[in-house]
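User: Reviewer 2 asked us to show a designed sequence for the structure in our supplementary figure. I'm pasting the structure tokens here. Could you produce the per-position amino acids so we can include them in the response letter?
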């Protein structure tokens, strides 16, 4: 990839819409667009005032035909998204006008942008650091207001600021130790090591605090994968419909109606739930239903949360016991459904089989207990603290791994100090932590990692 190229791509979602946008970025953005754009006022595109729209048409230079009626918006670097010259052509939304105008920009000298290349240029030109760049895609993919607030917080630099502060503290410790190395009086080295040990312990606590946000951050980003399981006809599909608030799954009194997996995203108190309704787990000779049961068991193994539904109006059955046996060490909430009917259920037996699990008595038919279920899910995600600081979240595997590695280097520094090793050995461990934290923000990251991150973006962003 050559950053001095001028790139072009469709920046809006495909499909019909009121407007569509073709975006160009690079040194020749204005001159390339000027070959195609003819303003109504007669003003040349290349002399357009930055951040001021011009009205006109896109003209095919070969046929001289009008391709579309457009607005031309030029933004001269460094006051643009990429800090390069950027031009946006706002045309009518639709595949044909967008495709035609994009083709003309490429024929006029632009190159088709690679996935995420606009944001990559913003990163390489210093407008965004790597955590902010990753937050761009999180903003686009956010599923609830809470996940959007988290992404916008990271985009504004809340996570970056925390990481940079940690790096600054570590750098201060390195400088302190290097000063002790330059003045090798034994008592100075000893005092410096003791002071660094205290500060390293505080930094480790802050790293652990960030790691503690990772579970919530990942859930807000990707959704809490939640599986509804139970024997047939216990009310699983009715619960899905109640949470989604529409008739998404077929509900009948006939056992085995749900034979395949049904997935839906639902907003529960700002938490995006990827909720999965599965086939009832039971022994069956029906080939299709049997495949559904096997799928249900696979989802159990990877789910973040399992909602096990049981029928309060009948005693525990062999089918219930079969389900209970596979959930011993899983994150399970027991939902005792049909609590509006006369109880035939043995709570003590259930406690013996699955001790310590959270239980709720609900009635999907009347809605009783569903609000308590939603509150329980939210409190589980936020660890009981609903008022979180949106944005101060670690939310992807790359960031989690690097924080873990930084903590390992810091723990190694404490071990080195405890073993009375010389300051230069402590510096090596601290510099390792400093480097790993720098990879999170992109200060010390390699080009291969950068390329890997931005290939996850859509073309045009």
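Assistant: Here is a per-position design you can include in the supplement:
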């Amino acid at each position: 990839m050559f950053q001095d190229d001028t790139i072009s791509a469709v920046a809006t979602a495909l499909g019909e819409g009121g407007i569509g946008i073709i975006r160009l970025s690079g040194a020749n953005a204005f001159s390339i667009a000027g070959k195609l754009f003819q303003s109504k006022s007669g003003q040349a595109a290349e002399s357009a005032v930055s951040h001021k729209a011009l009205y006109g048409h896109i003209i095919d230079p070969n046929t001289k035909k009008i391709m579309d009626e457009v607005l031309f918006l030029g933004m001269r670097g460094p006051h643009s998204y990429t800090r390069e010259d950027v031009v946006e052509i706002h045309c009518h939304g639709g595949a044909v006008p967008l495709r035609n105008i994009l083709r003309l920009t490429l024929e006029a000298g632009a190159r088709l942008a690679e996935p995420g290349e606009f944001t990559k240029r913003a990163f390489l030109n210093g407008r965004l650091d790597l955590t902010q760049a990753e937050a761009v895609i999180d903003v686009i993919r956010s599923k609830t207001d809470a996940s959007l607030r988290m992404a916008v917080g990271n985009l504004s630099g809340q996570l970056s600021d925390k990481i940079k502060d940690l790096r600054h503290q570590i750098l201060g410790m390195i400088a302190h130790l290097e000063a002790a190395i330059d003045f090798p009086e034994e008592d100075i080295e000893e005092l410096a090591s003791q002071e660094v040990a205290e500060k390293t312990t505080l930094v480790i606590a802050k790293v652990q605090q960030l790691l503690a946000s990772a579970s919530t951050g990942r859930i807000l980003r990707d959704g809490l994968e939640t599986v509804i399981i139970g024997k047939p006809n216990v009310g699983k599909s009715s619960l899905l419909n109640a949470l989604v608030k529409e008739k998404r799954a077929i509900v009948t009194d006939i056992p085995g109606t749900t034979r395949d997996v049904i997935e839906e995203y639902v907003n529960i108190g700002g938490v995006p739930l990827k909720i999965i309704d599965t086939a009832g787990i039971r022994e069956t000779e029906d080939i299709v239903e049997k495949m559904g049961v096997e799928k249900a068991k696979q989802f159990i193994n990877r789910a973040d949360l399992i909602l096990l539904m049981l029928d309060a109006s009948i005693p525990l059955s062999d089918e219930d016991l079969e389900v209970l046996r596979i959930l011993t060490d899983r994150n399970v909430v027991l939902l005792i459904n049909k609590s509006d009917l006369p109880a035939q259920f043995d709570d003590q037996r259930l406690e013996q089989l699955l001790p310590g699990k959270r239980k709720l008595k609900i009635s999907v038919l009347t809605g009783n207990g569903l609000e308590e279920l939603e509150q329980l899910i939210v409190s589980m995600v936020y660890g009981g603290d609903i008022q979180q600081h949106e944005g101060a979240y670690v939310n992807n595997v790359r960031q989690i791994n690097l924080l873990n590695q930084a903590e390992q280097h810091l723990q190694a520094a404490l071990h080195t100090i405890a073993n009375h090793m010389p300051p230069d050995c402590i510096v090596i461990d601290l510099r390792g932590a400093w480097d790993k934290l720098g990879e999170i923000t992109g200060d010390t990251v390699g080009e291969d990692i950068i390329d890997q991150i931005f290939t996850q973006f859509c073309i045009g962003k």
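For the response letter, you might also mention the following. The chain is about 45% helix and 15% strand. The chain has a mean pLDDT of 84.
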